[in-house]
Design a protein that fits this description.
Layout lengths: L1 H19 L10 H18 L2 H14 L7 H21 L5 H4 L6 H4 L2 H4 L2 H16 L7 H47 L5 H55 L4 H9 L10 H9 L6
Helix pairs in contact: 2-9, 2-10, 3-9, 4-10, 4-11, 8-9, 8-10, 9-10, 10-11
Length: about 290
């Protein structure tokens, strides 16, 4: 909702200021200029980005209007599900985790924590981290480099959408100039005719320049920056998983491993150490 408020202030303030200067709102909406700039912007976006990146841009842009990707309760659920699984492995041996990490979609334990279970990337990353340990294919001290490499790949993929949007934002002012030049061409063709008509055509051409700059710095660039923050929070979620899994694999008790994961989180999303310990101990899973 915050981003919606931002757009209301952005557009509303612009129109208010324009009308206070005795401008007519209808003068800002020149269909031909909008068609030229939007077609250039969307066309260049389609040309420069592969289909999966285009889908990610649309998906992430819509998600921004819902707010942050995670709430504090989502991180608490993450720590709880990891703790519960760690306790199971501690008590019954790592082989007891096989039914959960080999078939995460059917795991009764994962299903208890909906926010985690529906996050397919996180579930896959978590299970990929534990699976080699459960199978005995690698030693615990070999796990961290493996997960870091997966995290680097994930981070690289997350960078694609905001990177493409940044290029579109950089291009929009130039597209606005192109739209204005097209308007001037039309204006030149009308020279020698009605003077008032020439003035109107020049005003329409200038609208294209305004629109290109406005969309660049007022819409696309802010969405790109917001998307980067959104991706950063998703990355922290994964880093929390990595920190806890590596700690547990290297022999730390479940409670301590969960605490290591907690310390990765930003302050506003991080439960206090006392609250986390109390919540985990009252789950009935024990230490």
């Amino acid at each position: 909702m915050v981003i919606i408020f931002g757009f209301i202030v952005l557009v509303g303030g612009t129109i208010l200021g324009f009308t206070m200067g005795h401008g007519k709102v209808s003068e800002l909406f020149v269909l031909a200029e909008y068609i030229v700039i939007f077609s250039m912007g969307i066309g260049s976006l389609v040309i420069m980005a592969p289909l999966p990146v285009l889908k990610d841009i649309v998906k992430k842009s819509l998600s921004l209007f819902k707010g942050k990707p995670f709430k504090k309760a989502d991180f608490e659920d993450l720590l709880k599900v990891m703790y519960e699984l760690f306790v199971l492995g501690r008590r019954n041996g790592m082989i007891a985790l096989e039914e959960h990490v080999m078939n995460p979609t059917g795991s009764s334990l994962f299903k208890k924590y909906e926010s985690f279970h529906k996050n397919h990337h996180a579930v896959e990353f978590f299970c990929d981290g534990l699976r080699p340990i459960v199978d005995g294919r690698i030693k615990p001290d070999q796990l961290e480099p493996l997960l870091k490499k997966s995290l680097e790949t994930y981070k690289h993929e997350q960078h694609h959408a905001p990177f493409v949007l940044s290029k579109v934002a950089d291009s929009l002012p130039a597209f606005g100039i192109c739209a204005a030049v097209l308007g001037i061409i039309v204006t030149m063709g009308a020279l020698g005719g009605d003077v008032s008509q020439v003035g109107t055509l020049v005003a329409h051409a200038l609208t294209g320049t305004l629109l290109g700059i406005y969309l660049s710095y007022g819409v696309v660039a802010p969405i790109q920056v917001n998307m980067e923050f959104y991706n950063s929070e998703e990355l922290v979620y994964m880093e929390c998983i990595m920190a806890a899994v590596v700690s547990f694999a290297n022999g730390l008790p479940p409670l301590v491993a969960a605490e290591v994961g907690r310390r990765v989180l930003a302050e506003e999303m991080r439960p206090s150490a006392m609250d986390l310990e109390s919540a985990l101990k009252t789950m009935g899973a024990g230490k």
